[in-house]
Amino acid sequence: MTGPTEPNGQDQPLSSEASTDSTRHPGVPPTQQHPAPQQPPVQQQAYQPQQAQYDPNLPPLSPHAQQHPQAQQAQPQQPQQPQQQAPPPQQQYQQAQHPYASQPQGGQLPPLPQPQRSRHAMGGGSDLTGAQLVKRSKRTPQSGWRKALYLGSGKLINPGESPADRRRRELISQVNQPLRGCYKIAMLSLKGGVGKTTTTTTLGSTFASLRGDRVVAVDANPDRGTLSQKIPIETTATVRHLLRDADRITRYSDVRAYTSQGASRLEILASEQDPAVSEAFSEADYRRTVSLLEHFYNIVLTDCGTGLMHSAMKGVLDSADSLVIVSSGSVDGARSASATLDWLDAHGYGDLVKRSVTVINSVRPKAGSVDLDKLAAHFAARTRGVVRIPFDPHLEEGAEIDLERLQDDTRLALLELAATVADGFAADRMVR
Predict the structure, then answer these.
(1) Is the pTM of this model over 0.85?
(2) What is the pLDDT of residues 5-18, one digit of tens each?
(3) How many domains are contained in the chain?
(4) Among 147, 175, 203, where does a domain finish?
(5) DSSP H or E run through 187
(6) Are residues 110 and 99 in contact, defined by beta-carbon separation less than 8 angstroms?
(7) In contact, 302 and 313? CB cutoff 8 Å
(8) Residue 20 is inside which H or E element, if any?
């Protein structure tokens, strides 16, 4: 069967290679070749977005990303919705996943999202966490008769940890809570001989031995401070040398050349031993020192002098995130500590007083007739917490301090002090 007849009298089949292939058929002259169908322009086939094709399981685009101009032109205009109508599901997903996108610039950021525990996909399943899926073995005892029984039985009988061991583990976890930025602690006392420098060293050593970040103690005592004598001296450099070479310090290893480090990893930046030179340590000098140290350390402790009116004290109080008021167990020591709080309240540091912690340090073997419970209740009503440090023969020596040589009660009290101070880390994150 033949196809229709062309004007020239030749028969043309219904289908040929000329209509299905771009290659010219050998039997068709070039002048009689059918032209190839023209494709529509590319711009006419622009992608038409369909809202139903969005997958809500995919993460949303960055709020700063700009849409392609062709896609903007191709999107049909949506009719205006009433104001009370809820936003589309995609917008709700973006707001839930990116709460910062709706915040104005310069405003306070919302709290960071917390990790969510995964559940069974069908709903009704248990939490897929290690605490639910992994069998937890009983913790081994660390002290007392429980430890003796555990070791005496060849580790076959495990009575578990004691309440004291559990309490110690909870305090260590409290000390290790997260800290953002640099936390500055000022150690204050109007009366000498109450153990302020010793408390600075033991508190800093407790932080440095338990936490993985860097801890440094600065001696800001204008009257020949003794903080550098509490750990082995590695360098004769002082805070004056650090300020002199501040422009050349760019790395932690540069700062480390000016500090001495003890066995607990606590570093100490010593003060000048010449009282005539150290008296010139001004407020501006202290601010420069802290501004430099906060780039390399997470916790900075400042051992202040007994006077509140010397030149560097205003810089210490303005820069401090928390205070540790050190008092002895005597009446005159308690009155001096209370007078310190009165002076701070009267000079505009009432908020700092509320964030402070009081330490009642027993510098004598016997407490005498002073009621320490009433003394602790007095300071508990004015400060955030009160911690008692018992008498320890190793601290009475006045030499280099080694945490391993302290009695168990003293180490537990220092752990409670560090945990109480660390409670301010969370409040400091909320303020910042």
Answers:
(1) no
(2) 444 544 554 444 44
(3) 2
(4) 175
(5) strand 183-188
(6) yes
(7) no
(8) helix 17-20
